Amino acid sequence: xxxxxxxxxxxxxxxxxxxxxxxxxxxxxxxxxxxxxxxxxxxxxxxxxxxxxxxxxxxxxxxxxxxxxxxxxxxxxxxxxxxxxxxxxxxxxxxxxxxxxxxxxxxxxxxxxxxxxxxxxxxxxxxxxxxxxxxxxxxxxxxxxxxxxxxxxxxxxxxxxxxxxxxxxxxxxxxxxxxxxxxxxxxxxxxxxxxxxxxxxxxxxxxxxxxxxxxxxxxxxxxx
Length: 224
Fold this sequence. Notes:
It is built from eleven helices and five strands; from the N terminus they run E-H-E-H-E-H-E-H-E-H-H-H-H-H-H-H. It has helices at 11-21, 36-46, 62-71, 88-96, 108-119, 127-136, 156-159, 163-173, 178-185, 189-203, 208-217, and strands at residues 2-7, 27-33, 50-54, 77-82, 100-103.
């Protein structure tokens, strides 16, 4: 049974989500929050598997709520629910630690499959779309003060990787699938999956989306 918390300041939106989720045999709603502060408190209390997090809420918004939940070490995975599929809100939500995002007009089956994917530890947003977001908002990344070129800080998370793992993280950051990575490096897809698992563990990335963000932050990948 997948436990879900719904955070949205619109009562009718919460009602609709609850009706959909509770029609499923493998999901149950453990709480509803009308703002970010309530979401943080309810997640600390119930530790749901997944939280559907609206962004624009009164008081503490969904981005800051996500940031606080991730920093607390909660096992809850955050699924941002946004109005647009490519905007600064989705970008900020992913960088805050969300495992993915969906638009509010997604089909019911898309929402349900997204929740199941996040609960299973997968990322809902395709790495290629994550890269589109990061490319679009790359000006948020810090730059070297003199030249204006991207800085190239030494990141201990990258230093912990083998050369092959670093190569694979780079192409993950470029939006490559496991199948494409296997073909490029002449590896079995199962071997690629093992490498990806090790990369996530060594870098402390919660999922593949966070690995893409790390690839940008460490300058393994630069904006297109």
